[in-house]
Amino acid sequence: MTTRNERVASIMTTCGTYRLKELTNDDCLSLFTWHALGTSDFEGHPSLRGIGEEIARMCKGLPLAAKTLGGLLRTKGNHQEEWEDVLKSKIWDLPEERSSILPALRLSYHYLPFHLKHCFSYCALFPNDYEFEKDELVLLWMAEGFVQQTTREKQMKDIGTEYFRDLQSRSFFQQSTSDRARYVMHDLINDLAQYVSRETCFNSDGDKLYARVEKLRHFSFLRHQYDISKRFEILHQMESLRTFMALPIHTSPWVASSYLSNNVLQELLPRLVRLRVLSLSGYCIEELPHQIGGLIHLRYFNLSYTRIKSLSDSVGSLFSMQTLILHGCKNLVKLPQAIENLINLHVLDLTDTENLTEMPMHLGNLKNLQILSKFFVQKDMRPNFIDLKSLLYLRKEISIRGLENVIGTRDAGEYILKDKQGIDSLDMQWSPDFLDVDALPVFSMLQPHENLKKIRVAFYGGTQFSSWFGGSSLANIVDINLSNCRNVMSLPALGGLPSLKKLSIEGMDGVKELSFKPFPVLEVLQFQNMLKWEYWYHPYEDGEFPSLHELVIHNCPNLNQKLPRYLPSLVKLIVKGCPNLVDSVLNLPSLHELNIEDCKNMVPVSLIGITSLVTMRIRGLPYLKCFPDGFQQFPGAPKHLLISNCSGLRLLRQKVTECENVASIEYVKVNGSSPPLSLAENGKNLVPKSKHFLNSLERLHIESCPKLVSFLKIGFSSTLRHLQLRDCPVLTNLPIWIMSQFTSCLLEDLEIEECPSLTRFPNGRLPPTLKRLKLQDCASLCSLPEGLMQADNNKYASYLEHLEIIGCPSLKNFPEGKLPTSLKVLRIWDCWQLKPLFDRMLPDNASLEYVDILKYSNLESLPESLQNLMCLVELNINSCKDLECFPEIGLPLPNLRTLNICSCDKLKGLPPNLLSLEIWYCKELKDPVPKWNLHTLTSLREFSIAGGPDMVSFPHGCLLLPTLVSIYMASLNNLKSLTVSLQNLLSLEELEVVECPKLRNLPREGLPATLGRLCIRNCSLLENRCSRDKGEYWPLITHIPCIEIVATDI
């Protein structure tokens, strides 16, 4: 990693740090010149050489300084006077104590035009390394009034985009390395933004608040999982606030799970009447207060990925609104009719709102609307559809749903989209059950402008497409998707489209024959669920698809013709579920991935010219007996071979096994073969003892082979690192070559699962290279292998790090010796005859971090040597019925953070020193809670208890630990009240109470102000008292961001 923070480097490093040196003067000058003049020298500008050399020298070898100053001077042209002004600026001479900002960066900001200064300083709201999208930032600038539209010839958003590009060209923004569609600011640039905007912008996750609070105008913060009202108390002093922004703006749906206090929504935000930007993206908000309509200056409102169901009519009062983002609001079912009043609206983002099936009337009033990602045609509402024609400035993408609701041909008299040259993506959808063959007039009126790049047509009921589909209207089309147009009998003339790169055809049930003209630039061709397709003609022989990279044919059960023979650029070929597809001779010189599944009649007769195959997957080809001709000619490939349910495949040919390509295979997976290839020892299927046989194999995975009994005696090379055997019910013997003294085996990972007939390992010792061993559901396995344990005399070393033994009820003993000192993870589940761990097995393990024990019936006590496990972090003990106690001295382990104890009926005591403690259903733990000495757990953050003691009230004084963050209580049958002492838990964030039938009281003084989540589930006496808006306790808990009251099941 790269960092300017030496402390970060010292924490992350494992091999020392390397200090990057500054650029040499020559390199710095070259970089500066490139950004200033677009060349590497001053040959075309000799008068600027001396000045440029001086400026480059003052950059002191810092690349960012050279880039930003170069970008600045590029905007000033090649005027010597302008360059001299920069060189002689007094900013170079400012003392360093005035600011930690590099002089070169201060100069770059100083010479920015006024409008760009505003735009850049606003970016101080973004924390270091924050990735943002160009369009989202431009919309924010527009809302704040930073983008000035001087003429109607240019849209405001286009002007804002020019601003963005200006700042990017000066190196204030740079593309993210992880996502090329996003941008970041260098941390020094971010420092500059923070400095120049310190009086007006405040990111609550930053270090300092420079300005007087009442002067601040813009506020941002990173969402926490639970955002309590206390976090925003400072905003009560910011009545002139213009920006309230939860970050990140571009929330992903799988992380949209934050909760905001209702007090913030109901009380704070309505007071901020000067807000222009309000972003609540990613919060689990279900409804907005009516008072939101009072924010009359609001221009940008982001509710993406919230749980909002509808917007109130008060939104119609926000006449200044420019941007309304409802992206990913999957619970949204309707928009208010009053939205027609938002005549300044530019963006209405309704992407991924699948439950939204109603649109307000008169959207045509929104004359400035440019982004309308979704439009739903209302049934029996003609004006709703015609509204689209009035939206002259639509651009980017639009999805038009409910086209079956267009009323006959009355609505089909005029073009709706043809004059909208800004639309580059069009999605046209009818209802899935729509089969009206008279849909052609509606299709015709949706002819797009020829600038269109992408089109999708779904559930169209007509028998043919309109004449525009395939003509000049699609001259610039790049991507076509035709989905479930079941009545269409033939496809339009798509071959020859000069820009088409991707064509996807799915569910076209009426199509029986296909024939295409050549596609000059097509790269991806996909056919799926073409149930009646039978014939694919290839009239152009080898010139049909010169640029095709990927061909997918899936679930086309009646297709019985051959595939195109020659595909010179094909990289990926996937054919699945085509049982009638016949033998093919394929010439695929560029192929990397071949995947053929469930095509019983497809046996590749020959594979010609393949030189770069990496992965080969074959599944469900019962008539395949051997690999095709040409397989032995693949030089150095394939690397990965995966074979499944090929019952007729018996062996790799003699000539194949002796060639270099088989020697190059690194990964083999065999699933459902009987026997698997030539690995079974049944006399007829022995693999020749070739020196080339799988000499590069690293991973072997055999699964679901019902007749596999044993393996060949011949071993694999020393390259084999991972062996996995799963679901081989009659396997009785493991390959002898996994034991170290018989071969040069260097196995690192051995996994054996669901092999119920396996009784023992071969004689010998496991290789010392083995790091992971997993044995699961091997019911007859009665002994563990030698080499698993570390010999007492250290004669044989073991470096095992991960050991799992699960569901092996016949095991009784560990081998002699002690567990390897390298062991980090130990899991023993459901081995009820296995004798317990002894002190001698864990004498000095300095590596063990995780111990997980489940249904270990013979375990009565934990070994005293457990105290030596100084690296132990987590200990889980579950359903050990005979476990009575911990070691007498407890568990004084400095790194133990989590202890989970569940269903240990006889356990009578607890250890100290934990971050997390879980005690479930330990019936013999009868001492009252005060005697558990929980006050000694001074670092405890999580406490979970279920069943057990007769607790009447909670918490007891002994549990008033200021470090507690989470409390979970369940099945405490006598618990009646939560006491006022809860208020003393000043770090508590989560409280969950489940199935406590007698619990009826919360403390009248309320719950801790820090509480972010309260869950009460199946507590019948308390549920009604906490019900929303009605219960007597509701005023005490309404401030909590996440409240879950789940009624008792009846």
UniProtKB/TrEMBL annotation:
Could you tell me which residue ranges the Disease resistance protein winged helix domain spans? 125-193
What is the source species?
Gossypium gossypioides
- The molecule here is called NB-ARC domain-containing protein
Which InterPro entries does the record match to this protein?
Apaf_helical, LRR_dom_sf, LRR_R13L1-DRL21, P-loop_NTPase, WH-like_DNA-bd_sf, WHD_DRP
The UniProt keywords, alphabetically, are: Leucine-rich repeat, Plant defense, Repeat
Q: Keyword Ubl conjugation: yes or no?
A: no
Pfam families per the UniProt record, alphabetical = LRR_R13L1-DRL21, WHD_DRP
Recorded GO MF terms = ADP binding
Q: Which GO terms describe its biological process?
A: defense response
- R13L1/DRL21-like LRR repeat region domain mapped to chain residues: 387-508
